[in-house]
Design brief:
- With 195 residues, the protein is mostly helical.
- It folds into 2 domains: 4-105, Orthogonal Bundle (Rna Polymerase Sigma Factor, Chain: A); 125-194, Arc Repressor Mutant, subunit A, CATH 1.10.10.
- Helices cover 70% and strands 0% of the residues.
- It has 9 helices and no strands.
- The protein has helices spanning 7-15, 19-40, 51-67, 76-99, 117-123, 127-142, 146-156, 161-168, 172-194.
- Helix 2 packs antiparallel against helix 3 (51-67) and helix 3 crosses helix 4.
- It is rod-shaped.
Length: 195
């Protein structure tokens, strides 16, 4: 392991392309920086970013910029302060990124806090949703044949494909084809409204 006086030499050696020097610098400071990040990293943010992620980014920036000659390392204290500053800046940037409006970790809810599907279905549609659905259904029905309208109506009443086929005296294939056609029409209407 390098001594305190060897730090500037190791940094210079890395700048000249010595991978072992980079490895020694990495090993020397990784644990201290890991503890620093581990203490600072918010528990909610840990679900998305690990201390290792932050340190890899920090060391990557340090080695790239050192290789480009942007940093002059005079002693181990200077190097520690530089690595600490780079690491804390990386941590702050990740925290800001994950607190931005759409990514905000504060908006996340655990699965136990979410409303269950059963609760949503038990509420039923609002009067506005029901009216929109009926309007869409009427517009769709106008595009279907009388037979297809019957098939869709029975399907919406909860009848199975086999029961619909038996009731209307047609094959299951005919029922499936009619339902697929209705679904395609509905998708086309939705895409037309979205564009």
């Amino acid at each position: 392991m390098a001594g305190e006086a060897d730090i500037p030499k190791l940094a210079g050696s890395w700048r000249e392309g010595n991978e072992q020097a980079a490895d020694q610098l990495h090993r020397r400071y990784w644990e201290r920086l890991y503890r620093l990040v581990d203490e600072q990293l918010d528990r909610r943010l840990r679900k998305r970013v690990s201390p290792e992620d932050i340190l890899q980014s920090a060391f990557g920036s340090f080695f790239r910029r050192t290789g480009e000659g942007q940093y002059q390392i005079d002693d181990s204290g200077h190097l520690w302060n530089l690595l600490k500053t780079i690491t804390l800046n990386k941590l702050r940037k990740q925290a800001d990124r994950h607190r931005a409006a759409k990514r905000d970790v504060g908006r996340e809810q655990s699965l136990t806090q979410r409303v269950s599907e059963e609760e949503i279905l038990a509420r039923g549609p609002s009067p506005e949703d029901a009216a929109i659905f009926l309007d869409e259904l009427e517009a769709l029905a106008a595009e279907l044949s009388a037979r297809e309208q019957q098939i869709v109506q029975l399907c919406l009443q909860g009848e199975s494909v086999a029961t619909i086929a038996e009731t209307l005296g047609c094959s299951r294939w005919t029922v499936r084809r009619a339902l697929r056609r209705a679904e395609q029409r509905l998708r086309q209407r939705a895409e037309g409204e979205l564009s």
